[in-house]
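Morning!

This is the sequence you dropped in the shared folder:
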Amino acid sequence: MSKGSASRFAGAENAPRPASPRTDQALSRQVYATLRDQISHFVRKPYEPISEQALAEELGVSRTPVREALARLSELGFVDIVPQSGSRIAPLRLADLEKSQFLREALELALLNRALERGDRGALLMRLRTELAIQQALVEAGDVARFYASDEQFHAAIGEQAGLSTVLPEMARAKTHMDRFRHLMLSGLESLPTILAQHQAIVMAMAADDAPGAVVAMQTHLRRILAFVDKARAAHPDYFEGPREPARTRRREARV
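The structure's back. Tokens below.
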């Protein structure tokens, strides 16, 4: 759902009757998912003010699910609550990126090592090579969104080979801020052919039964985002937290 859309969530329109707790929870999840996606893709930009009432009217829901969604986004670090000023989209913070990258790398390398220990990797290599072929076509087409989806499938395949697909949602949460930075960089700073080449290096090492090489290739891939921070800040200085961010800003710590 795009920003400014007058579309309403299912079940919310033409409903003067009070919503049930279950309906409120469902609406809250939908509002949360919509706002999180908009913030991640910079439809709603850093430091942009947020009004509960305006959001409720825009999305066609009551203020309760909006308030609950904003509370979750505050815990995530996507929204700042500023006393006497209201809420706003949180700026990009290097500390968030570093923590997110660290957590993702720890989980990703653990999954990779376990996948490499699980005997026959023929099916995994076939699946990864299929994603590489898809990514090659998407690079040529310049389709960033579908390339990003294939990238997710590439990494998910390794987690599934490790026998720990249940860890994938945890990794998705861990890399939330990394993904936000990544969406910004894929809009013109990062190179899809470079990402593809990194994926190819990972697969080549796995096919050669070179576990240390696969780990190094994965580390190179996951750490590359840190090298683009200065370029991202130079291209979008207004998106980043300033050196003297007001101390009164209150942000809820994310629950682990």
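Headline: The first strand starts at residue 49 and ends at 50.

More detail when I'm at my desk.
O.
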